[in-house]
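Hi F.,

I've been meaning to write this up properly since the lab meeting, where we talked about keeping a consistent format for the predictions we share between groups. The idea is simple: the sequence comes first, exactly as it goes in, then the structure tokens exactly as they come out, then a line or two of notes. No screenshots and no reformatting. I'm using this chain as the first example so we have something concrete to point to.
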Amino acid sequence: MITVMRRRLGLALEPLSRAVLVSRNASRTFVARSSAAVADSALLRRLAPGSSSYLRAGLVRSPRGFAASPASGQAAAEETHAFQAETRRLLDIVTNSLYTDKEVFVRELVSNASDALEKCRHDFLAKGEDPGELAVAIKVDSDKGTFVIEDNGLGMRKDDLASNLGTIARSGSKAFVDEIAGDAKDDQTAATSTAASNIIGKFGVGFYSAFMVSDKVDVYSCAGDGLAHRWSSAGDGSYTIAPCEVGDGDGQAPARGTRIVLHVKEQDKTLAAAEWAVESVLKKYSAFVGFPVTLNGKRTNSIDALWTKSAGEVSDEDAAAFYRFVGGAIDTPAFRLHFSADAPLTIRSLLFAPSDNPERGFAGRQLEGDQSGLSLYSRRVLIQQNARGLLPQFMRWVRGVVDCEDVPLNISRESLQDSDLIRRLGDIITKRMLKFLGERAKKEPEKYVKWYGKMGVFLKEGICGDQSYMYKDALTPLLRFETSAEAVKSDGDDKPRHAQISLDQYVERMPEGQKDIYYLVAPGGRKQAEISPYLEHLKRKGHEVLYLYAHVDEFVMQHIRSHKGKKLVSVEMAEFDEDPKDAKKDDATTDDGESLGGEAMEKLCQWFAEEALPGRVTGVKASSRLVGSPALLTGHEPEAMRRYRMMLSMMSDDATAKKLDELQMSAGLELNPKHAIVKGIQAALESGDEERKAVAKMVAEQVFDNARIAAGALDDPREIIGRLNTLLEKVVVK
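Output, unedited:
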């Protein structure tokens, strides 16, 4: 009986036994510095096997360990412990490992001073008083090796110095924002809202960046009550606070406000104690702080934060100066967009469309990787110049500033944490800018066309790029092309000009019965397009054709594919049904007499394919769309693809190059049965004169090569020179 009871008791209390063993193992790796943890440890020692205490505690030995008796077994109470930090080590991390560049200490100290002034302004306005002129003054002395920054804000008392500077990661600015946010429930004044939005700091570590460049930092502060104190530290984990006098001399505090003195390290004097270096950093990061900032008596932030103003408040001259400052440009912007939004993100921005391509010319420069042309600010303080990942690559030409209060920053305020939010921000800006360009194109068409002539390549890149699916519908209406329409003389023009139109305008001008949008690639310009044999049939039908002068335009059309339900078709690839009306027009306008009969033309086409051009064409047939040209090529690769093939051939081995070259042979030939050359070849073949037949064969080869040239499908025109010389010789001799 006793044995059975022992077994049951041992099994019932086995979980507690395991818990005790786990506690022993855990105690080897983590020791809690608290009285409760020490007491628990002592208890376990008393309950060790063989001790009398373990029996008094109600534990019994079982084959698998120790267990508590049912009468005394109770769940252990849960305890809460606070993380401990080694202050000196934490200060060292904040000072030496948090920031990428030492120069940002200027930005951090100026931001802190700006926050102090904003708090002062809010406090005085809340009391209905005038705070006076609020400003930040910086003085550097390379000989003494000092950097001094002073503000005339509210200042700090002894307790404030201890709590704000003696506690790492305690942000007085964040506490101020939380306080007025609570007050805002009862007080919805504009002053309260403005103060909250203008506060920059929130992490409570910016001040300690001063130790990156300093052996010692002294802070002199007075709250305006005549009681001043000095806070001093060498960044070694300790600090001192002592009373000091009020005044403008060394070792004295301002009557109201704070003066911070950095005793700069010898190796950092060029960065932190040289006027030119500090001025450069101020203009880079703190050019738009809301209060005047002076350096050795000279103001450094004279340009206003124009993105915080409405478009009507900004003159063209001020906008141009701002554009050159933030964009590093020398031209004048063609268009500017003031854009603000409060949902889904709080955005204030001023965006510019340069009048010249920023990647070309004397001042042109290429951006790196995913850089954009925008400077990202948060509450008027620069976060990133040429912000990365903000805009798609084809929008890298946009210049300006984006200020977003919702930007998630890391603690150093040098990088962004939420990449998805940044993509959303960039998507909003991109779509708004493209919409703005569409509005300008309608309101100022001539100015837009001029701008498009220099910047249109970026829009085409967007259509052909990786993100085409996102922005193609917005980009397509922004494209502009010349057409086959006659030149028109506008008011103020000396001579007629060929207008550039959009695809929307083309569709509106399409005659009834036209199903597709036609285009012709002519890298040689308008003259090349006008003499193209592919244009003859559409001119006869009265259909307008888009002229594409850039090689990339063909890729653009292949990506667009259709617009407003109309397919985009190259005239070189277009297929047309024969229209009896067109045949009557041909009969009325042709002076070359009758065309070759069906049987004679069929034999001639067979001779072209089998004897004159064996293996060089996929087929030869009579054409119903040619008017003034003897022949044209059909089914050939587009010129843009041909250039791409040539590039691949140069990078590939001989076998691959041979296969790629075979692509150019997959083309057919159409002959004009009414053309004199075609009828002359037929007559020479029927003459029975072998010499005339030989000449006819050379002429047939030349007709084919001419068609290849017209189609842009002849890689090396030098191969036809010998034949041309022979033909010219025969003409001259006769």
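Notes:
The chain has 26 helices and 25 strands.
The longest strand covers residues 214-223.

If this format works for you, I'll send the rest the same way.

G.
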